[in-house]
Amino acid sequence: MAFQRDVVVVGASAGGVEALRQVVRSLSADLPAAVLVVMHLAPGAPTALPQILGRAGPLRAVAAAHAAPLTAGVIHVAPPDHHLLLDDGALMLSHGPTENGHRPAINATFRSAAVAAGPRVIGVILSGALHDGAAGLGAIVERGGLAMVQDPSDALYPGMPESALARVTTDHVYPADVLGKVLDRLVRTPADAGPAEPPAPTLLLEDRIARDGVRRGAVAEELAAAASGYSCPDCQGALLEVGDRPGQFRCRIGHAWSAEALLGARDIELERALWTALRSLDEKAALAQRMERDAAGRGHAGLTGRYGSTARECATAAERLRRFLLSLSQDIEANP
């Protein structure tokens, strides 16, 4: 049976604004599909992305609103600190668990579209670091939808496009300016597919976690998952390994992490702990030096020597740690 692909979900992150502008610029004013855009945003920061995309092309772009109808020819932009989901032909904003530290998360929107619209969905991955969206794009393809990916060589940050292409096979890999033109044609071309398979239990569970918000036992109650031995950076709870591929984790209340994102979070935690240790060493050295002077002023030779030794040891350790932390910063600058 022929049908139209009338739901387009687009995910972008670092370097994604310009890619989004190029895609939107190529879409026609009579686009017969609704467009949902998810970009990683800081939780408390306002965003001008709807205005930017509205000026970039002929389509109206709006901040997505809870319970608003899914409207063809309109770009619905996920607001900060909310997942953008689909619910029976309407938009749903959720404060569900973060995924890889992000809310909105691209995977959450893509999975929701896969569950709600199946083969009618076109998923698009644009520039971004790491790999949010790859698992969601896989869910779209598994449900009979279509995958489109920005050519990694055209992306300012190729991590997300490369991860998406490692997860799915698609012929639709284009520079951003070409991708929009092809997308405009695809939503107008009748598609023909057999009956879509029902969503997998794991897909339904992950979609429900994004909808229901953080609740105790969200994973453990319904999914036999192996303990990973790692802890969740968001809540410090135990992480369980879930999904049909290795390296995918959720804690018991629903926060989701990939292995690569978890490794990055551990880097941040380690650096923060080391800077805290450096501050403690500096303060301990300064305090010991003060106590050394006070002891010397009172004529206590034994205490003077002890405090002086402590001050020197702490100053030496602090200098070594400071050099190590500065070398980490230089490595990051040399290999962004």
Strands, total number: 15
Identify the CATH class of the largest domain. Alpha Beta
Report the biggest beta sheet as strand number plus sense, adding barrel if it closes.
Answer: 7 strands, parallel
Order of helices and strands: EEHEHEEEEHEHEHEHEHEEEEHH
CATH architecture of the largest domain: 3-Layer(aba) Sandwich
Instruction: Describe the strand arrangement of the main beta sheet, using strand numbers.
Output: 4-5-3-2-8-9-10
Structural class: alpha/beta
| CATH topology label of the largest domain | Rossmann fold
Report on this model:
This protein is α/β, with parallel strands linked by helices. The chain folds into three domains: 2-192, Rossmann fold; 214-254, no CATH class; 261-334. It is 43% helix and 19% strand. The chain has nine helices and 15 strands. It has helices at residues 16-25, 49-56, 106-117, 134-142, 159-167, 176-186, 201-212, 259-297, 301-334, and strands at 2-3, 7-12, 34-39, 60-63, 74-77, 83-87, 90-94, 121-125, 146-150, 173-174, 191-192, 226-231, 238-241, 248-251, 256-258. The strands form four sheets. It has a seven-stranded parallel β-sheet, with helices on both faces. Helix 5 (159-167) links the parallel strand 9 and strand 10. The radius of gyration is 25 Å and the shape is elongated. This is protein-glutamate methylesterase. The active site is at 13, 40, 132. Keywords: Chemotaxis, Hydrolase.
Which descriptors would you attach to this protein?
336 residues, alpha/beta, Rossmann fold, 3 domains, 7-stranded parallel β-sheet, 4-stranded antiparallel β-sheet, 15 strands, elongated, hydrolase, protein-glutamate methylesterase
